[in-house]
Write a structure and sequence with these properties.
By secondary structure, this protein is an alpha+beta fold. The strands form 2 sheets. The chain has a 3-stranded antiparallel beta sheet with strand order 2-1-6. A 3-stranded antiparallel beta sheet has the order 3-4-5, with no helix packed on it. Helices cover 41% and strands 25% of the residues. It has one domain.
Amino acid sequence: MKVWVTKYALTKGIEEKEVKVSEPSPSMVSVGWFETYHGEGKDWHHTRESAIARAENMRQARLKSLRKSILELEAKRFT
């Protein structure tokens, strides 16, 4: 089955992968033994459009976090 992986979207981008669905847990997919993705709609997606939407949400959340960190750092004073 082909899926789009967003687990590492902010560092590697969206990756298109051929995966197998886990029998005990259908929300998990894997590529080989060590490459496993959990949660449809979170780490992996059935459609590219869904993956793009998730990656954009991840990007916005990261930007918000960085802005907060910058404000905290700018407010810090050493006496």
